[in-house]
Amino acid sequence: MRGVKRVVAVFSVLAAVLVALGFVLENQQGMALSFLGLETARMPVSVFVVVALIVGMLVGPFLGVLVRGRRHKSTVSVRN
């Protein structure tokens, strides 16, 4: 059973890598983003999407810890 799980995990990771590689190769057209008067350098679309994904993966858990910490403090103060 352990070997089956390992094979499924390897194939899942391989599929995710192939999808990401296909996305990057299909989105090579250059573009520049502008927001509030600031403009980025001209880069492929995939760079912006991957950077947004990484930022979301970092910020999401951080916000989850903050919310969980505040909720935990409020339940502790209610019990006292």
Spatial strand sequence of the major β-sheet:
1-4
- Given the structure, what is the number of helices? 2
Q: Over the alpha carbons, how many angstroms does the gyration radius reach?
A: 20 Å
Identify low-pLDDT runs: none
List how many beta strands DSSP finds.
4
Strand-residue proportion: 5-15%
- Helix percent reads over 70%
Structural class: mainly alpha
Query: Separation of termini?
Result: 48 Å
- Describe the sheet with the most strands: 2 strands, antiparallel
Order of secondary-structure elements: HEEEEH
Number of domains: 1
The general outline is flat
Mean pLDDT: 83
Topology:
Blueprint: H1 2-26, E1 30-31, E2 34-35, E3 38-39, E4 43-44, H2 45-79
Antiparallel strand pairs: 1-4, 2-3
Walk me through what this model shows.
By secondary structure, the chain is mainly α. The chain has one domain (about 1-80). The protein is built from 2 helices and 4 strands, in the order H-E-E-E-E-H. It has helices spanning about 1-25, 45-80; strands spanning about 30, 35, 40, 45. The protein has a two-stranded antiparallel ribbon. Strands 2-3 form a two-stranded antiparallel ribbon. Strand 2 (about 35) and strand 3 form a beta hairpin. The protein is flat, with a radius of gyration of 20 Å. The termini are far apart. The model has no long low-confidence stretch (mean pLDDT about 85).
